[in-house]
Amino acid sequence: MIGVCLAVAMGAAGPAVSVDRVTARTVARVITPADIADLTDLADAEISPDGRHLLYVTRPGIGQRDSHSAIWIVPTDGSAPARPLTVSASLDDAPQWSPDGRTIAFLSNRPQPGVREEADRNLRPATFGPDQPIAGEPTRQLWTISLSGGEAQPLTAIGRDIRSFRWSPDGHSIALLAPDPLTAQVRADRAAKRDWVEADVPREFNRVWILDLASRGLRRIAVPDRDASDLSWSPDGKQLALRVAATAGLNDFFYRSDLVLVDAASGTVERTVFKGVYGTASWSPDGRRIVFIAPDQGNIGIRGFVADVATGATREVGATFDGTLKRLDWSRVNGTILARTIVHDRTIVSRIDVATGRFSPLIDFDGHIRDYSVADDGTIAFVGSQVDRPADAWISRRGKLRRLTDINPQMRNWRLAKVEKVRWSSSRDGKPIYGLLFTPPDAKPDVPIKTVVQPHGGPQGVWTASWQGSWTDWAQILAARGYAVLLPNPRGSEGQGSAFSRGVKDGWGIADYQDIVDGIDMLIARKVTDPARIGIGGWSYGGFMSAYAITHDTRFKTAIVGAGVTDLFNLSLGTDTPDWFAGYYGLSPASIAKMDAVSPLRAIDRAQGPVLVLHGQEDRRVPLTQGLAFYQGLRLQGKEARMVSYPREPHWIREREHQLDVQRRVLDWFDEHL
């Protein structure tokens, strides 16, 4: 567990700072890249309606491309160890309890069983008629299994991947999200390689399909010319709230999705509740209101809303909240909403009084809560990680926390970092800036050591007091090898409200960069950091900040630029999420000039230290040319640089061997140059 001591402040010798000291175990073995790659991840904490059992999913590796996954079940009172509910070599995930708690539905790409006997015809899985899966291409289908165990049974065999599903409130049907069946012409075109793609032309819409569990019949609900990406049932089962967009593209999914209400029987769209939402809605128990989140101004920040179902009238909740809303759900009480929020460097689950808008903390967990579910008695299950452990399954019952799993027991022998929550004041305007400091377990006070700064992605990302050990989270593995590692949350980050997140609009690399170097000055003043041995490295926006630092500041001796933005104007036109970037700059001549002023590629002649560029070859968020141009520009200038690109990889590196290579190169590069 994490222990937090009282804050302390520095004297006049350095920047104002407070520190929460977080305990860590002193252990023997130094962590290796293979150790990190071999960690097991946990997700999908689903508590049973009666609160007695918890389902969760385990996967090999953190952020690795899934090879297989399994569903486990554990009693919430801790009376017995967890046991596997499904056992296969396939991907079993997304478990959901039936409303009566007797059956679990889940998605799996396991092979379908053989043809059933005539007597079992009524139990055959639902299909799209003659459409069948393409040979050699397993699809994600819906399966069920009893709480008491036994063999899992398929509910569908539709030949298309099911994206998600939701039980109806009465348990008699399930709503699925899946594309339309493939036509014979589409199959022929694919086989003949007639697979060109015209930009912005809608294709492969996901539809809503209502599966009647008694007859195994499928009924299609299609919002005209819209892709459906999320859904929720009204408590009486008569309506569906859908998140829909004009295309199935990522940009429309994130930034141009609308919330609509649909009659579940006829499929008629009754109302567009809100234009531009994140996720779907959560219904009040009486079905009269829904709550949801939506992008703030310019898609920077997140806002919460309550809407009246009958009239469509909306009002904002949490407008003055000094943090970031990440999820809103109606509780079992009509007047109370549950909110998962980021505040500074931690996740807090709170109650919101609907009438007053007042927040009150509900789960006091010093770490990061990734997702949660709620039982009928109010017990909350969640996936939580802390600085000394990756994700485990937890429950909160009547204010008391219990950890139900120990997914990675091998970590007990690892040499883990000491972790501090740090705060300093901006030299620009005095704003408080928060972050985390990882140091070696045997670090001595007042003995400055080599230091790496790792900016997060985003800009609207955030470092939380959670496990920082993966292919892209380097703090633990670097600290184990003698480094201090600063994880800063400068302006632009989540955790201090939308205005703070918008603090980098029209100015990446200016105020946010100053916030970061103010943190370095704080560490130098505390005699944590050796000013002659400072490096910087990060991924995505963290890669941009690293490229900016090495081209604008001589204090950094080396940089690692992972999938980094180096030419802002080219990125604005080449990314797969242009609305994200447009929120920061737009495309006026004045905006282009501002982009050029901070683009690391435009200042490449001023780079002062060696640079390692890492990039996925299939990256569409930050295209490979961003990293390639920076690398080739450095080399043409006679600078020391190296570049490694990873085949088949998108913006995030997913293959295990590639993840291992990233970690090894990070360690070797900083060891060589610091």
UniProtKB/TrEMBL annotation:
Gene3D superfamilies named in the record: alpha/beta hydrolase, TolB, C-terminal domain
Top-rank lineage group of the source organism: Bacteria
Pfam families: PD40, Peptidase_S9
Keyword Protease in record: yes
MF term (GO), any: aminopeptidase activity
Domain Peptidase S9 prolyl oligopeptidase catalytic: 475-674
Identification of the protein by name: Dipeptidyl aminopeptidase/acylaminoacyl peptidase
InterPro entries attached to this UniProt entry: 6-blade_b-propeller_TolB-like, AB_hydrolase_fold, Peptidase_S9_cat, WD40
PANTHER family: DIPEPTIDYL PEPTIDASE FAMILY MEMBER 6, SERINE PEPTIDASE S9 FAMILY MEMBER
Annotated source species: Sphingobium lignivorans
Alphabetized UniProt keyword annotations: Aminopeptidase, Hydrolase, Protease, Serine protease
